[in-house]
Amino acid sequence: MESENNIYKRLVNIGLALSAEKDINSLLERILREAKEIAKADAGSIHLRTSDDSLRFVIVLNDSLDLFEGGTSGREVTLQEILLSDANGDPNMSNIASRCAVDVETIFVDDSYTSDEFDFSGVRRFDLITGYNSKSFLAVPLKNFSDECIGVLQLLNAIDENGEPIAFPRSDQSVIEALASQASVAIENRRMMDEQKAVQVKLEKDVGNRTEELEHALSKLSEAHIILKELTTIDPVTGIRNRQYFEKVFRQELLRAIRQQSDIALLLLDIDHFKKVNDTYGHLAGDECLAGVAREIDNMLNRPSDVVARYGGEEFVVVLPYFTETNAVQLAEQLREDLERKDFKADGTHIKITVSIGVSSGIPNSLETGREFLAHADKALYRAKESGRNRVVNYTSK
């Protein structure tokens, strides 16, 4: 295994790369290839949960057999879906992937030919036909924000230095689960963006229709409640998430950090002397400037797990899961410098702005101490403004 520092950096880079993927098939392929490389696995697959409660293969890779189906291969996966329950409605616990999805827990199998915990008869038929040796398995659940299983990442045959299949080391579990967590967020975000895009196309097409007709059409859509929920989380001036959404997601990320005992960081940004912008150029230009600043922050912080929201007035808040104090301060300084260099165009006028940023970070042990991060970031922001503005201040108790 790589050093802990290298693994952390790698997970951050993987998160950034996943957030940049615009195509769901490319995203799934990137996830599986990264997992195979980290675990030194010869083969693997990703299953996504369907609406009729089964697991559908969406990508399969096997290096020894030179097999690639799904993803960007252009070839459909030929393997059948895995049912999560039998004809009587009882959970399917005989298949490793289905049990992983039902129990929402990681499963190791060191040797499928000596294990009697699962039904590997289908695997053995596959080996007999292909000459392959399906020895060790590692199944990891893909979970959404509510800890519900949306799919399974399954790896096959860890390979040693001599090219022989061995059992997956238990020490790999935390790293693969962290990757699976990033993958789940990326998949959910990609699905949400695809759904939003489809809805946007429809809304633009129907813009000329009367409000009553539009409401009637929306009522017939099975996903109407999702659309309405999404609309309530968007700030109308800036187009990014609003404070209500931030408070919900911040609580979820705090719970995750408490459970995993991982770092989390907050940035609180305030546009310096923004009242002068409104007084000099007017409120319309001020609103356009706010939207421009929001877009810049959003574009610069694009990991799947990052959350950027308007906190109020000319203040913005950024949630950074898995960010240490050093990384959070470096990122805040980069944000400050980039925004200072940017020339914002609003209502035909070019406007220059600066920002003050307060930083707070740590590993929370309860929701109460986690909420203190926000108060600390606010104090750090106050110190930044008091000491001259256009600067980053990291919270300390002194």
For the structure shown, list the relevant keywords:
398 residues, alpha+beta, Beta-Lactamase, Alpha-Beta Plaits, 5-stranded mixed beta sheet, 15 strands, globular
Overview of the structural elements:
This protein is α+β, with helices and mostly antiparallel strands and about 400 residues long. The protein has two domains: about 5-190, GAF domain (Beta-Lactamase, 2-Layer Sandwich), CATH 3.30.450.40; about 235-395, Alpha-Beta Plaits (2-Layer Sandwich), CATH 3.30.70.270. The chain is about 45% helix and about 20% strand. The chain contains twelve helices and 15 strands. The protein has helices spanning about 5-20, 25-40, 95-105, 120-130, 175-205, 210-220, 225-230, 245-260, 275-280, 285-300, 325-340, 365-385, and strands spanning about 40-50, 55-60, 65-70, 80-85, 105-110, 135-145, 150-160, 165, 265-270, 305-310, 315-320, 345, 350, 355-360, 390-395. The strands form three sheets. Strands 1, 2, 3, 4, 5, 6, 7 and 8 form an eight-stranded antiparallel β-sheet that branches. β2 and β3 form a beta hairpin. α2 (about 25-40) packs antiparallel against α5. The longest helix is centred in the middle third of the chain and has 33 residues, at about 175-205. The two termini are about 40 Å apart. The mean pLDDT is about 85.
